[in-house]
Every structure is written in structure tokens, then in C-alpha cells.
Amino acid sequence: MTTSFTSPFASSRHAPILKRHQLNSFDAVWDFEIQWFEEPNQRRGGWSGVGRIALENDNPSPLFLFVKKQQNHGRKTLLHPLSGEPTFRREFAWLQFLEAHHFHAPKVAFYAERGTGENQRAVLMTEALTEYQPLDVLSDDLRAKVGRQQQMVLIRKVAEEIRRFHDFGLVHRALYPKHIFVKNAEGAPEIALIDLEKARVSRWFFFRAFFDLAALNRHAEGWRLTQRLAFFKHYMHIEKLSFLSKVLCRLIIKRSRR
Predict the structure, then answer these.
(1) Distance (Å, rounded) from C-alpha 168 to C-alpha 27?
(2) Is-above-0.85 flag for pTM?
């Protein structure tokens, strides 16, 4: 079997602390024991898992990093029709893309991969979004803490950022509230997206909106009808539903009820 090696990437910000903790090589990260958040996913002919570590640094608070590992957990592409590529490679690329375009998402600390075929492994380390909360956890708290006006501010901000993400030509393909992270929800909210390993380029706006908004609508438990409508109108940049926007809205609702 032919073996390949991709030179590790370490961000300039994180490289010194990773070197200090001897976590600046593929083997070091792969062999480092982490506690899984949950049992690794067994699919695609291999497995993929994630855990969190804390690294002491010069600041009072440790640096929290998410560590993802996968083996034989790839997808076929036009450039790699036989061996496929690790799904983390695509996530690494999208995270780098979003950072370059000033879109909030986890910052990459380290990425590396080894092997091909049946021994393809990859590791991805990202900085934890320590000041953010996932939208699904946050929703119940917000209903108790803030009024409907502030809840609407948040919903419109989520719509604005998802539309901006789609305007890059991307579809998330797993746009659930647990993958939408919120900072400063009770003031001027900031939104970040996580779990981008399924993200794809799509040339068609209709498909991006239809696929992702149906998933979000299906899983956005607790959102009132008025909030869902306000989200959709803000996402579409409209004040009043047109014939075409009504068609899209109905299709999204139909898909979300499957």
C-alpha cells in the first residue's frame, strides 16, 4: 500500500503552546489520550470521534481545544474517486475559508493526516468557543430571561448570518440548533457555525436555502410561528412574501415535516 503524508498545519497563534505540550506532530496528537464526548461514530467504513483538552499557558485560564480523530472515515470526491479523502480535510478547508472571510467559526489550531486507502487517518484541533452557547441549549434560558423583542433580535441575527454563509455558495448540510453557537445573546448577539465536515459548495441558492432551512425548521423546537416567519423574511431580505418566496417557504415546511 502506498503511504502519503500531509505536512501538519499549526496556526501561528497556537504553534508555541502546542510545541510546549509536545502536541505539534501527527503522531503526538494521535497518541494523546482524550476522553470522548460520546462514543465515536462508526460509519463510512471507519470511525470518527471528538473530545476536549485543556492546555496550561501563560494566561490564568487554560486553552481549551477540541480534538477530533478519525480513521477510514472519508468520502469519495472527483479528485479522489477511489481512496476518498478524510472528512476532516474538508472541514479544515472550510474553517480556514470562513476565518479568511471574517465569519465566526472555530479557529483551527492544528491539522494533519496520514495514510491512504484502508489506513487513512486525520486529526483536527480547534479552539473551543468558550464564550458561546449552542442555540438549542440557549433557547429555553432566553424564554425565561428576556422578552420577545430580544428573542426576535437573536432570531434575525441567526437568519442574517446563515444567509451570509449561504451567500458564500455553501450549504451546511447539518444545520441544527446545536451547531449554531451564540455569544452575547441578551445584547448584541454574535453567531458562529460549527461541524462543517458535511459542508459543500452549491451553485443554486434555492437548494442551499431549501436544504438547510428545512433542517433548522425541523429541529428549532420552541420557536413560535411568528418567529419562524420573521426568520424566513429576514433571511430572504424581504418585508412581504412574494409568490416565489411563498413557494420556497411551503417546500421548506413540507420537507421539515418528513
Answers:
(1) 35
(2) yes
Contacts of 68 (CB under 8 A, 6+ apart): 48, 49, 50, 88, 123, 124, 125, 126
Side-by-side strand order, sheet with 190-193:
133-134, 180-183, 190-193
3-class state of residue 201 by DSSP: strand
Q: What is the mean pLDDT of the chain?
A: 90
Contact yes or no for 221/146 (Cβ under 8 A): no
Nearest to 71 by CA among 51, 43, 98, 90: 43
Task: Check if the beta carbon of residue 192 is closer than 8 Å to that of residue 183.
Answer: yes
Residues 6+ apart with CB under 8 A from 105: 94, 95, 98, 99, 192, 193, 194, 196
- DSSP structural state of residue 119: G
Unique residue bearing C-alpha cell 480556514? 96
Give percent of the chain above pLDDT 70.
91
Cα–Cα distance between 235 and 39 in angstroms, integer?
A: 36
Does position 3 have pLDDT exceeding 50, yes or no? no
Provide the pLDDT for residue 77: 55
Instruction: Give kind and range of the element (H or E) at residue 159.
Output: helix 148-167
Helix axes 243-256, 205-219, angle to 10 degrees: 50
- Cβ 233 vs Cβ 239: under 8 Å: yes
115-169 pLDDT, tens digit each: 876 688 999 999 999 999 999 988 777 777 778 899 999 999 999 999 999 999 9
